Protein backbone atom coordinates (compact mmCIF):
# COMPACT_ATOMS: atom_id res chain seq x y z
CA UNK A 1 0.00 0.00 0.00
CA UNK A 2 1.13 3.55 -0.79
CA UNK A 3 -0.33 6.11 1.60
CA UNK A 4 -0.22 9.88 1.33
CA UNK A 5 -1.56 11.77 4.36
CA UNK A 6 -1.83 15.55 3.92
CA UNK A 7 1.38 15.59 1.89
CA UNK A 8 2.65 18.96 0.70
CA UNK A 9 5.71 19.57 -1.44
CA UNK A 10 6.98 23.07 -2.01
CA UNK A 11 9.78 24.29 -4.26
CA UNK A 12 10.47 27.78 -2.99
CA UNK A 13 7.14 29.56 -3.18
CA UNK A 14 5.65 27.03 -5.59
CA UNK A 15 3.28 24.46 -4.08
CA UNK A 16 3.80 21.39 -6.29
CA UNK A 17 1.53 19.17 -4.16
CA UNK A 18 -1.03 20.58 -1.76
CA UNK A 19 -2.24 18.43 1.16
CA UNK A 20 -2.57 15.28 -0.90
CA UNK A 21 -4.25 12.39 0.91
CA UNK A 22 -4.33 9.25 -1.17
CA UNK A 23 -4.28 5.46 -0.74
CA UNK A 24 -2.95 3.43 -3.67
CA UNK A 25 -3.45 -0.33 -3.44
CA UNK A 26 -3.04 -3.29 -5.75
CA UNK A 27 -4.21 -2.84 -9.31
CA UNK A 28 -3.48 -0.22 -11.94
CA UNK A 29 -3.77 3.38 -10.76
CA UNK A 30 -3.43 6.04 -13.44
CA UNK A 31 -2.27 9.51 -12.45
CA UNK A 32 -3.44 12.07 -14.98
CA UNK A 33 -3.44 15.84 -15.16
CA UNK A 34 -2.19 18.75 -17.26
CA UNK A 35 1.47 19.71 -17.38
CA UNK A 36 2.56 21.15 -14.06
CA UNK A 37 -0.22 19.41 -12.12
CA UNK A 38 2.21 17.59 -9.80
CA UNK A 39 2.42 14.14 -11.42
CA UNK A 40 6.22 14.01 -11.62
CA UNK A 41 6.55 15.30 -8.06
CA UNK A 42 4.19 12.58 -6.84
CA UNK A 43 6.24 9.88 -8.58
CA UNK A 44 9.53 11.22 -7.23
CA UNK A 45 8.09 11.21 -3.71
CA UNK A 46 7.03 7.56 -4.08
CA UNK A 47 10.52 6.66 -5.30
CA UNK A 48 12.16 8.45 -2.38
CA UNK A 49 13.87 10.97 -4.64
CA UNK A 50 12.12 13.82 -2.86
CA UNK A 51 11.09 14.40 0.74
CA UNK A 52 7.68 15.90 1.57
CA UNK A 53 7.70 19.44 2.91
CA UNK A 54 4.97 18.35 5.31
CA UNK A 55 2.60 15.43 5.81
CA UNK A 56 3.33 11.72 5.87
CA UNK A 57 4.12 9.28 3.07
CA UNK A 58 4.40 5.52 3.49
CA UNK A 59 5.33 2.97 0.83
CA UNK A 60 4.82 -0.63 1.99
CA UNK A 61 5.04 0.69 5.55
CA UNK A 62 8.35 2.42 4.86
CA UNK A 63 9.26 6.10 4.61
CA UNK A 64 10.79 6.18 1.10
CA UNK A 65 12.76 9.38 1.71
CA UNK A 66 14.58 8.18 4.86
CA UNK A 67 14.50 4.39 4.43
CA UNK A 68 14.88 4.03 0.69
CA UNK A 69 17.29 1.09 0.98
CA UNK A 70 14.51 -1.03 2.49
CA UNK A 71 12.52 -0.68 -0.75
CA UNK A 72 15.27 -1.96 -3.04
CA UNK A 73 13.86 -4.96 -4.87
CA UNK A 74 10.29 -4.06 -3.91
CA UNK A 75 9.79 -1.11 -6.22
CA UNK A 76 10.61 -0.80 -9.92
CA UNK A 77 10.55 2.31 -12.09
CA UNK A 78 10.47 2.74 -15.86
CA UNK A 79 10.96 6.39 -16.90
CA UNK A 80 9.53 8.01 -20.02
CA UNK A 81 12.95 8.32 -21.60
CA UNK A 82 14.38 4.90 -22.40
CA UNK A 83 17.68 4.10 -20.72
CA UNK A 84 19.22 0.88 -22.00
CA UNK A 85 22.74 -0.26 -22.89
CA UNK A 86 22.44 0.00 -26.64
CA UNK A 87 25.73 -1.75 -27.45
CA UNK A 88 24.46 -4.97 -25.84
CA UNK A 89 22.11 -7.49 -27.39
CA UNK A 90 18.75 -8.04 -25.74
CA UNK A 91 19.94 -11.40 -24.39
CA UNK A 92 23.15 -9.88 -22.99
CA UNK A 93 21.21 -7.03 -21.41
CA UNK A 94 18.80 -9.22 -19.46
CA UNK A 95 21.52 -11.74 -18.58
CA UNK A 96 23.69 -8.92 -17.21
CA UNK A 97 20.97 -7.58 -14.92
CA UNK A 98 19.91 -11.05 -13.84
CA UNK A 99 23.50 -11.77 -12.76
CA UNK A 100 23.78 -8.36 -11.10
CA UNK A 101 20.66 -9.09 -9.02
CA UNK A 102 21.56 -12.72 -8.38
CA UNK A 103 18.47 -13.98 -10.22
CA UNK A 104 18.16 -17.46 -11.66
CA UNK A 105 15.80 -16.76 -14.56
CA UNK A 106 15.04 -18.14 -18.01
CA UNK A 107 16.20 -15.23 -20.17
CA UNK A 108 14.96 -16.83 -23.39
CA UNK A 109 11.58 -17.42 -21.83
CA UNK A 110 11.37 -13.79 -20.69
CA UNK A 111 12.31 -12.52 -24.14
CA UNK A 112 9.65 -14.76 -25.67
CA UNK A 113 7.05 -13.51 -23.18
CA UNK A 114 7.79 -9.91 -24.12
CA UNK A 115 7.75 -10.55 -27.87
CA UNK A 116 11.50 -10.06 -28.30
CA UNK A 117 12.87 -13.59 -28.76
CA UNK A 118 13.35 -13.15 -32.51
CA UNK A 119 15.61 -10.16 -31.81
CA UNK A 120 17.42 -11.72 -28.85
CA UNK A 121 20.86 -11.53 -30.48
CA UNK A 122 20.42 -8.16 -32.18
CA UNK A 123 22.02 -4.99 -30.90
CA UNK A 124 19.59 -2.93 -28.82
CA UNK A 125 20.67 0.10 -30.87
CA UNK A 126 18.60 -1.32 -33.75
CA UNK A 127 15.41 -1.54 -31.65
CA UNK A 128 12.45 0.81 -31.93
CA UNK A 129 11.51 2.88 -28.89
CA UNK A 130 8.65 0.48 -28.23
CA UNK A 131 10.95 -2.54 -28.26
CA UNK A 132 13.34 -0.79 -25.89
CA UNK A 133 10.42 -0.03 -23.57
CA UNK A 134 9.42 -3.71 -23.59
CA UNK A 135 13.01 -4.66 -22.78
CA UNK A 136 13.04 -2.22 -19.85
CA UNK A 137 9.81 -3.71 -18.55
CA UNK A 138 11.28 -7.20 -18.88
CA UNK A 139 14.33 -6.08 -16.90
CA UNK A 140 12.46 -4.55 -13.99
CA UNK A 141 9.73 -7.20 -13.80
CA UNK A 142 11.99 -10.25 -13.84
CA UNK A 143 12.83 -9.56 -10.19
CA UNK A 144 9.09 -9.65 -9.27
CA UNK A 145 8.78 -6.24 -7.56
CA UNK A 146 5.66 -5.49 -5.54
CA UNK A 147 5.35 -1.95 -6.93
CA UNK A 148 5.73 -0.87 -10.56
CA UNK A 149 5.93 2.85 -11.36
CA UNK A 150 5.58 3.87 -15.00
CA UNK A 151 6.07 7.33 -16.46
CA UNK A 152 4.32 7.77 -19.84
CA UNK A 153 4.68 4.11 -20.90
CA UNK A 154 2.87 4.70 -24.22
CA UNK A 155 4.71 7.85 -25.28
CA UNK A 156 6.15 7.58 -28.81
CA UNK A 157 5.43 3.86 -29.06
CA UNK A 158 4.77 1.99 -32.32
CA UNK A 159 1.38 0.21 -32.65
CA UNK A 160 2.79 -3.32 -32.19
CA UNK A 161 4.64 -2.38 -29.02
CA UNK A 162 1.62 -0.46 -27.74
CA UNK A 163 -0.41 -3.69 -27.80
CA UNK A 164 2.38 -5.66 -26.12
CA UNK A 165 2.96 -3.02 -23.43
CA UNK A 166 -0.76 -2.88 -22.71
CA UNK A 167 -0.73 -6.65 -22.15
CA UNK A 168 2.34 -6.44 -19.91
CA UNK A 169 0.75 -3.79 -17.71
CA UNK A 170 -2.53 -5.68 -17.53
CA UNK A 171 -0.77 -8.88 -16.43
CA UNK A 172 0.89 -6.85 -13.64
CA UNK A 173 -2.49 -6.02 -12.09
CA UNK A 174 -1.75 -8.14 -8.99
CA UNK A 175 1.00 -5.64 -8.13
CA UNK A 176 0.68 -2.00 -7.13
CA UNK A 177 1.01 -0.27 -10.50
CA UNK A 178 1.25 3.52 -10.60
CA UNK A 179 1.13 4.91 -14.13
CA UNK A 180 1.42 8.53 -15.21
CA UNK A 181 0.06 9.00 -18.72
CA UNK A 182 -1.33 11.60 -21.09
CA UNK A 183 -2.79 8.81 -23.22
CA UNK A 184 -6.33 8.82 -21.87
CA UNK A 185 -7.50 6.21 -24.37
CA UNK A 186 -5.03 3.69 -22.94
CA UNK A 187 -5.82 4.73 -19.37
CA UNK A 188 -9.51 4.14 -20.01
CA UNK A 189 -8.75 0.63 -21.31
CA UNK A 190 -6.42 -0.66 -18.62
CA UNK A 191 -6.66 1.41 -15.41
CA UNK A 192 -8.63 0.24 -12.38
CA UNK A 193 -8.44 3.59 -10.61
CA UNK A 194 -7.91 7.13 -11.83
CA UNK A 195 -6.43 10.06 -9.92
CA UNK A 196 -6.75 13.51 -11.49
CA UNK A 197 -4.30 16.18 -10.32
CA UNK A 198 -4.73 19.89 -10.97
CA UNK A 199 -2.43 22.58 -9.58
CA UNK A 200 -1.04 20.13 -7.01
CA UNK A 201 -4.48 19.10 -5.75
CA UNK A 202 -6.28 15.78 -6.09
CA UNK A 203 -9.55 16.79 -7.76
CA UNK A 204 -10.75 13.26 -8.50
CA UNK A 205 -9.93 9.77 -7.20
CA UNK A 206 -12.28 6.97 -8.19
CA UNK A 207 -12.69 3.52 -9.67
CA UNK A 208 -12.80 4.00 -13.43
CA UNK A 209 -15.88 1.86 -14.05
CA UNK A 210 -17.83 3.63 -11.33
CA UNK A 211 -16.53 6.95 -12.58
CA UNK A 212 -17.68 6.38 -16.15
CA UNK A 213 -21.02 5.00 -15.00
CA UNK A 214 -21.63 7.85 -12.59
CA UNK A 215 -20.65 10.67 -14.87
CA UNK A 216 -21.71 9.35 -18.23
CA UNK A 217 -24.61 11.23 -19.81
CA UNK A 218 -26.71 9.42 -22.37
CA UNK A 219 -28.53 11.28 -25.11
CA UNK A 220 -31.91 9.84 -26.03
CA UNK A 221 -33.85 11.12 -29.04
CA UNK A 222 -37.49 10.09 -29.38
CA UNK A 223 -40.20 10.87 -31.93
CA UNK A 224 -43.55 12.17 -30.74
CA UNK A 225 -45.29 15.22 -29.35
CA UNK A 226 -44.26 16.54 -25.93
CA UNK A 227 -47.13 16.93 -23.40
CA UNK A 228 -47.66 17.22 -19.64
CA UNK A 229 -47.55 13.44 -19.12
CA UNK A 230 -44.22 13.27 -20.90
CA UNK A 231 -42.89 16.00 -18.64
CA UNK A 232 -44.02 14.06 -15.58
CA UNK A 233 -42.21 10.93 -16.78
CA UNK A 234 -39.00 12.83 -17.54
CA UNK A 235 -39.07 14.46 -14.12
CA UNK A 236 -39.53 11.09 -12.47
CA UNK A 237 -36.32 9.78 -14.08
CA UNK A 238 -34.31 12.98 -13.78
CA UNK A 239 -34.07 13.37 -17.56
CA UNK A 240 -33.41 16.82 -19.01
CA UNK A 241 -34.66 18.13 -22.35
CA UNK A 242 -31.85 19.64 -24.42
CA UNK A 243 -33.71 20.00 -27.70
CA UNK A 244 -37.44 20.17 -28.42
CA UNK A 245 -38.71 20.07 -31.98
CA UNK A 246 -42.20 19.75 -33.43
CA UNK A 247 -42.03 15.96 -33.63
CA UNK A 248 -38.82 15.08 -31.84
CA UNK A 249 -37.43 15.42 -28.30
CA UNK A 250 -33.77 14.98 -27.32
CA UNK A 251 -33.03 14.24 -23.68
CA UNK A 252 -30.02 13.75 -21.45
CA UNK A 253 -30.25 10.86 -18.99
CA UNK A 254 -27.73 11.24 -16.18
CA UNK A 255 -28.14 7.74 -14.73
CA UNK A 256 -27.74 5.06 -17.38
CA UNK A 257 -29.22 2.42 -15.03
CA UNK A 258 -32.59 4.16 -15.32
CA UNK A 259 -32.60 4.05 -19.12
CA UNK A 260 -34.52 0.75 -19.60
CA UNK A 261 -37.34 1.82 -17.26
CA UNK A 262 -37.55 5.26 -18.88
CA UNK A 263 -37.81 3.76 -22.35
CA UNK A 264 -40.55 1.39 -21.19
CA UNK A 265 -42.62 4.26 -19.82
CA UNK A 266 -42.18 6.36 -22.95
CA UNK A 267 -42.74 3.53 -25.41
CA UNK A 268 -46.55 3.87 -25.49
CA UNK A 269 -46.40 7.39 -26.93
CA UNK A 270 -42.94 7.69 -28.43
CA UNK A 271 -40.72 5.93 -30.94
CA UNK A 272 -37.06 5.56 -30.01
CA UNK A 273 -35.08 7.37 -32.68
CA UNK A 274 -31.50 7.46 -31.41
CA UNK A 275 -29.48 6.65 -28.32
CA UNK A 276 -25.92 7.89 -27.94
CA UNK A 277 -23.22 8.51 -25.35
CA UNK A 278 -20.31 10.86 -25.97
CA UNK A 279 -18.72 10.69 -22.54
CA UNK A 280 -15.32 9.06 -22.10
CA UNK A 281 -12.38 9.62 -19.80
CA UNK A 282 -11.09 12.45 -21.97
CA UNK A 283 -14.32 14.42 -21.55
CA UNK A 284 -14.33 13.80 -17.80
CA UNK A 285 -10.70 14.91 -17.59
CA UNK A 286 -11.39 18.11 -19.53
CA UNK A 287 -14.40 18.89 -17.34
CA UNK A 288 -12.33 18.37 -14.16
CA UNK A 289 -9.38 20.58 -15.17
CA UNK A 290 -11.74 23.35 -16.28
CA UNK A 291 -13.13 23.67 -12.75
CA UNK A 292 -12.23 26.95 -11.07
CA UNK A 293 -10.43 28.11 -14.22
From TrEMBL:
Question: Would I find ATP-binding among this entry's keywords?
Answer: yes
CDD domains named in the record = ABC_DR_subfamily_A
EC number(s) on file: 3.6.3.25
**Broadest EC class?**
hydrolase
- Membrane-spanning regions, if any? none
Q: PANTHER family of this UniProt entry?
A: ABC TRANSPORTER ATP-BINDING PROTEIN, ABC TRANSPORTER ATP-BINDING PROTEIN NATA
Q: What is this protein called?
A: Sulfate-transporting ATPase
An MF annotation (GO) of this entry: ATP hydrolysis activity
The UniProt keywords, alphabetically, are: ATP-binding, Hydrolase, Nucleotide-binding, Transport
Q: Give the family this protein belongs to, as stated in its UniProt record.
A: Belongs to the ABC transporter superfamily.
ABC transporter domain location = 2-224
- The species this protein belongs to is Archaeoglobus veneficus (strain DSM 11195 / SNP6)
Amino acid sequence: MIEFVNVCKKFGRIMALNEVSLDIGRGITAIIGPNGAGKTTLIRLILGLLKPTSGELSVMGVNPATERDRLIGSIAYVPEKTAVYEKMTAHEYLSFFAALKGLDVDVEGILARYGLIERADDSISTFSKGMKRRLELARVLMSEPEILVLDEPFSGIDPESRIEIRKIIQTSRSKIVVMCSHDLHEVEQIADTVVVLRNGNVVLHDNIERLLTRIDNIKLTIRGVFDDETGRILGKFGAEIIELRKDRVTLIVNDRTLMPALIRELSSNYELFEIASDTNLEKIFIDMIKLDC
